[in-house]
From TrEMBL, chains A, B:
Keywords: Cytoplasm, DNA replication, DNA-binding, DNA-directed DNA polymerase, Nucleotidyltransferase, Transferase. It comes from Bacillus carboniphilus. This is Beta sliding clamp. Confers DNA tethering and processivity to DNA polymerases and other proteins. Acts as a clamp, forming a ring around DNA (a reaction catalyzed by the clamp-loading complex) which diffuses in an ATP-independent manner freely and bidirectionally along dsDNA. Initially characterized for its ability to contact the catalytic subunit of DNA polymerase III (Pol III), a complex, multichain enzyme responsible for most of the replicative synthesis in bacteria; Pol III exhibits 3'-5' exonuclease proofreading activity. It comes from the Bacteria. The gene is dnaN_2. Transmembrane segments: none annotated. PANTHER family: BETA SLIDING CLAMP, DNA POLYMERASE III SUBUNIT BETA. Residues 1-127 form the DNA polymerase III beta sliding clamp N-terminal domain. Belongs to the beta sliding clamp family. The lineage of its organism: Bacteria, Bacillati, Bacillota, Bacilli, Bacillales. Forms a ring-shaped head-to-tail homodimer around DNA. The keyword Nucleotidyltransferase applies. Residues 254-376 form the DNA polymerase III beta sliding clamp C-terminal domain. SMART domains: POL3Bc.
Length: 378, 378
């Protein structure tokens, strides 16, 4: 194996692949990154068994030469060192050559490294994906959907299925649901193509978070391929594989109340900031509890107290309050997470009593919904 | 106590004072910040007994009203909460009032906090400084001198005096020396005024680091007042007190070799980058050891190896090498620290053999010197 490559591009691709490489792994070769060099270009692979990331640097892109391959081949190199070395090399290009006994020679300008490689044949194979059905979304939209739901997955392993986001494809719509059983995030998007089959899978929240970090904002499409136990996300030069979670996701549709007894319409930012202030004291107590009461025809009161620190109270104007009077308590943190996810100027909150879950919706977007369970205090 | 104040300015001053407040203190009242309000303005104080910081927000500055005092007085408030609350308030101004039982009322727009205060009379008094002699430096210069020396103080408490920077005032010059006994940083600056007395004090490295964070880059003067066991740094609205370290600082002047056997002149940045690359492997081994050899009339070789990872070697061009051939080993980290501190395009390194300390100087600035002890390997 011997090739010369544009260093910037190698740095960029390595950075993506490194996201899948964990330094704490029981499989030593997975602390490495695999390089496969053929006439098409240089393929980098990183994996922690759950997530695998593959990037391709083509020899030529948009008429620009990115890599010159002198001899094809493959090697596995210590990911952290290889990454650090490449980032700190002095010149714009770098030459990499595998010599005797897997010794790998890296040269850029006057700097010459010789590092111990590992046999690429011992690197685990990537999951085999049979391409039955391919779904496509703009990258931007997928990123938004992830951001608006993934925060609500459970961080506890007591019910592992809840650490993932539930994907449902039905009637040409893709729906994401995440819940940790204290709150629920729901997001829907139409699919372009015609998909007749129904699919139900659960994608680990961690995988979606990593994917979101790697994908740049762009309206370019991303392809998604589903199998029994894997999902593959694919853009022009990137393949991101994640295992799926096993088991049945609970039926969450019946959690969302169909009717409401109190409806409040208000500005999301003003509400968020008032909750943020109330949470300053609330976070000292248990559950981060903030109290919310309708006090006038068009105003609510947000309050919180902590015996050690003190008390906070704030009146927030609404656009309208309809239905019954209400006093309710909830986690300030969950409410802030929900408001940040909704990303809307104005919101409608639908309550069905102080002991029932309530729902926050955007006034101008039916494709997102956030649900929060209250806390008993009043 | 009752006053209204510009919130931005309060945020800014609190941020400075918070630098002295530690959440881990054996004196509970020191987790608080003291507010003293009189007709001149609002004075904030934070302290961890070693460092005390006082900032003054005058009622009027440059014809702009910063604070309106309705009733003078004082209170101590939980520093972290008070800071968080002020930062998150909705309006540009905030009203603060002490009511019954030290309850402190904070109001901005519709947000109203009522937090538990502590009696300001129980807050420790700041050190009393008798103004015998005041030294003045431009803030920029003081910051540079700190940056160029403080990194070399010892982090070990086995010889506490070495955790400080030695200040010497003699012949109208101020000299800083710091050493952890493996390397030494030395920096000198002329003093403007006429100072006939000789002073020798040791200022804790931690205090200088905190001071450096608080001071903004500026050519404005900063005043320094020395006493037996305290130093006070003073700008227009800030007073920064630090205790001094007790004990005698070792005589470091005889550590610096008067002559040399090998002199190398080279570009600092190229050298730094080569050492940085060599350190990638060196840091895996013990002591972070990098090898340095004169190899040609005008080139040196930097190398390092780690049995597990591999080897790196790099030739670096010099401007000149005079004197004996040399092979020497040293800590890559110490050399990088020294080169970053020197801040010079070109440097001269003076060696007196592989087992003797060597000295790095700027080619165009006699006021700074860095000394490093080698490591035995060749």
């Amino acid at each position: 194996m011997k090739f010369t490559i544009q260093r910037d591009r190698l740095v960029e691709s390595l950075q993506d692949v490194m996201k899948a490489v964990s330094s704490r792994t029981t499989i030593p070769i997975l602390t490495g990154v695999k390089l496969l060099v053929n006439d098409e270009g240089v393929t980098l692979t990183g994996s922690d068994s759950d997530i695998s990331i593959e990037t391709i640097i083509p020899t030529v892109e948009d008429d620009k030469v990115l890599a010159e391959v002198e001899k094809t081949g493959s090697i596995v190199l210590q990911a952290r060192f290889f990454n650090d070395i490449i980032r700190k090399l002095p010149e714009d290009t770098v030459m990499i050559e595998v010599r005797e006994n897997l010794q790998t020679f890296i040269k850029s300008g006057n700097a010459e490294f010789s590092i111990n490689g590992l046999d690429a044949d011992e690197y685990p194979r990537l999951p085999q994906i049979e391409e039955e059905e391919v779904f496509t979304l703009p990258i931007d939209l997928l990123k938004t959907m992830i951001r608006q739901t993934v925060f609500a997955v459970s961080t506890s392993e007591t019910r592992p299925i809840l650490t993932g986001v539930h994907w449902k494809i039905e009637n040409n719509e893709l729906t994401f649901v995440a819940t940790d059983s204290h709150r629920l995030a729901w997001r829907k998007a139409p699919l372009d193509n015609n998909h007749s089959h129904t699919h139900n899978v659960v994608v680990p929240g961690k995988s979606l978070n990593e994917l979101n970090k790697i994908l740049d904002d762009s309206q370019e499409p991303i392809e998604m391929v589903l199998t029994q136990n894997q999902i593959l996300f694919r853009t022009e030069n990137l393949s991101f594989y994640s295992r799926l979670l096993e088991g049945n996701y609970p039926d969450t549709s019946r959690l969302i109340p169909a009717e409401s007894k109190t409806e409040v319409v208000m500005n999301a930012k003003e509400f968020l900031q008032a909750i943020d202030r109330a949470s300053l004291l609330a976070r000292e107590g248990r559950n981060n509890v903030v109290k919310f009461s309708t006090i006038e025809e068009e105003a609510v009161e947000i309050s919180s107290d902590s015996p050690e620190i003190g008390r906070v109270v704030e009146k927030v104007q609404t656009q309208s309050i309809t239905g019954e009077e209400l006093k309710i308590s909830f986690s300030g943190k969950y409410l802030m997470d929900a408001l940040k996810a909704i990303d809307s100027t104005d919101i409608r909150i639908s309550f069905t009593g102080a002991m029932r879950p309530f729902v926050i919706r955007s006034l101008d977007n039916d494709f997102i919904l956030q649900l929060i369970l209250p806390v008993r205090t009043f």
